[in-house]
Amino acid sequence: MFSNNNMSLLCPGRCASCTIVNQAVSCLTLAVGYTVQSATVLRCNISCLTCSSANINICLTCPDSLYLNGTNCIACPIFCRKCKAVATNLGSACIECNRGFAIGTDGSCQACTSYCNNCSLSGPSSCDYGYCFSGYGLSQGLCASCLNDCSICDFTNSLNCLGCSSGTYLFNNNCYLCSQNC
Hints:
Among the domains are: about 75-145, no CATH class; about 145-180, no CATH class. The chain is about 0% helix and about 45% strand. The chain has strands spanning about 1-5, 5-10, 15-20, 25-30, 35, 40-45, 50, 60, 65-70, 70-75, 80-85, 90-95, 100-105, 110, 135-140, 140-145, 150-155, 160-165, 170, 175. The strands form 10 sheets. Strands 1-2 form a two-stranded antiparallel ribbon. It is elongated, with a radius of gyration of 26 Å.
């Protein structure tokens, strides 16, 4: 989008920023995924984030979930959000897994333990603090069920109820049923 003489106009999709020159819209900077070849703006190959101005099929960078292997973008392994190429013809190594997964000892993305949303810091065999499902709390690295209508709990020292289910209220680490409109 650009502004000219108090008018705001939308730049063409291939332009990240633009201006008007001689009553025509002109790109100042190209949007990601476009390049200029012989004064013509071209879309890069669909797998490229950016590409060479000499050839739209020569990738320079890749979007997340793909890695650059020579001049091509190749899909990362399953459940891998970001990866990088390793030595020639050996494929890729995952450097960041999708949420709910962590890099295991074999370098692949493995699911977190039961009732856990994130284990990227602690690894797939335990859960990161604060990432257990609602109604579960962290106990020795695993997500354990909270007690008595407790929706958020903490087992670090002893059972601490930090929040209650709807229709109940918290008092002295316990949830109690509301008598009316709680």
